[in-house]
């Protein structure tokens, strides 16, 4: 797969096992990262999480070009990356990257962190739309279930994305967070007529949603303040 992407001129950042062997002169990728000096590790955020920025320490090393496939003047370069948590430095994840020449470490770090958004989308589709709740063994039945489930999740995600956050954002504990896919699904489940909902149920659902999002904003503010405070190694 990496060769296909490289031949197409497409960059990538791929997670690999610690036994991965980049091309010479390096051996296993875990040994290459283990040999990195302490000053090679830089702290970067690979995206915002529910409890604050996802801060990790990253170390990278460029790999020599391959003359057979790269030609005389390569436009991209390969590198190895290691990621560790400041709280658990012995637990290291490994990546291979193929990026345009001159790319800083922060760019592949940001790309590596984008996988959490994909995982969160799949998890939301399972929890709110029943993406994984099928008992079929053939493709026609599988498609009949997966198609409406993914369309439902897409609709909920678009509605949630069109909402705005009240207040000053994550640094304002008095604000309310944006609607999530789960929150939109709960409100629609209560407010849509089946028959027409009672006014008391509508008011209760809206007030309960506002209260929940206000308290989630307070929790988020405290998580971010704790994680971004100086000297905190979380």
List keywords for this structure.
alpha+beta, globular, 234 residues, 8 helices
Q: Could you give a short description of this structure?
A:
InterPro entries: RNaseH-like_sf. This is Transposase. The chain is an alpha+beta fold.
Protein topology:
Blueprint: H1 2-7, E1 12-16, H2 29-34, E2 42-49, E3 52-63, H3 67-70, E4 76-84, E5 92-100, H4 106-113, H5 115-129, H6 139-161, H7 181-191, H8 199-228
Antiparallel strand pairs: 1-5, 2-3, 3-4, 4-5
Report what the structure shows.
This protein is 44% helix and 18% strand. The chain starts with a helix and ends in a 6-residue tail after the last helix. Helix 6 crosses helix 7. The protein has eight helices and five strands. The model has no long low-confidence stretch (mean pLDDT 82). Strand 2 and strand 3 form a beta hairpin. The chain has 234 residues and is of the alpha+beta class. A five-stranded antiparallel beta sheet has the order 1-5-4-3-2. The protein is globular, with a radius of gyration of 23 Å.
Give the CA-CA distance, first to last residue. Answer: 37 Å
Uncertain runs are: none
Proportion of strand residues: 15-25%
Beta strand count: 5
Biggest beta sheet attributes? 5 strands, antiparallel
Oligomeric state of the chains in view: single chain
Give the SSE string: HEHEEHEEHHHHH
* Structural class label: alpha+beta
Mean of all residue-level pLDDT scores: 82
Radius of gyration: 23 Å
Instruction: Bin the helical content.
Output: 40-55%
Shape: globular
Count of runs of 4 or more consecutive helical residues = 8
Strand order of the largest sheet: 1-5-4-3-2
